[in-house]
Amino acid sequence: MMPMYFVDSSNVTLLFDFWDVHGPAGMALSVLVVLLLTVLYELLKVGKLWLSDRQLPVQLPVQLPSESLGSDSTLASSPSQTSLAPTEPHRSPVNKWWLHCLQSAVHLIQVVLGYMLMLCVMSYNVWIFLGVILGSVIGYFLSFPLVRPYS
């Protein structure tokens, strides 16, 4: 029977029968694997955000005719008037579909990996739990600045 409280043992079975850990060296290797899987999970979260940003329509500025801006030619060519011009979305339906399929695949991998990490934590092993927590912190630290670096 598996304990329902945290233990600091170096003997644990993780996820599958073949991932049976016995001894400190196996535990250290398992903690490292779980840590790296958690970092990958955080990177997938950022990758999914990046893909959703790419799915938004690209806004291309449309130059208004100079006669609609007035008779003053300096006003018609000023950058502020160009930036106020209406924009048109431009995205190919095929590209949108492939981008959506890719985003769905990333989401599937993220969900499967998240549940696997949850089951690792549910082994109630302190070292595995700390590996997941530390991996989450490292993954967030490394990946989150990539979402919107200057916003």
Lay out the secondary structure.
Elements: E1 11-13, E2 20-22, H1 24-55, E3 58-61, H2 66-69, H3 73-76, H4 79-83, E4 87-90, H5 93-121, H6 126-143
Antiparallel strand pairs: 1-2, 3-4
Q: What does the model show?
A:
The chain is mostly helical and 151 residues long. It has a domain at 11-57 and 92-146. It is 61% helix and 9% strand. The protein is built from six helices and four strands, in the order E-E-H-E-H-H-H-E-H-H. The chain has helices spanning 24-55, 66-69, 73-76, 79-83, 93-121, 126-143; strands at residues 11-13, 20-22, 58-61, 87-90. It has a two-stranded antiparallel ribbon with strand order 1-2. A hairpin with a 6-residue loop joins strand 1 and strand 2. The longest helix has 32 residues, at 24-55. The chain is elongated. The protein starts with 10 loop residues before the first strand and ends in an 8-residue tail after the last helix. The model has no long low-confidence stretch (mean pLDDT 80).
* Tally of contiguous helical segments: 6
Number of strands: 4
Helicity level, as a percent range?
Answer: 55-70%
Largest sheet: 2 strands, antiparallel
* Termini gap: 51 Å
In terms of per-residue confidence, which ranges show pLDDT below 50 for 5 or more consecutive residues? none
Can you describe this structure in just a few lines?
With 151 residues, the chain is mostly helical. The chain contains 6 helices and 4 strands; from the N terminus they run E-E-H-E-H-H-H-E-H-H. It has a domain at 11-57 and 92-146.
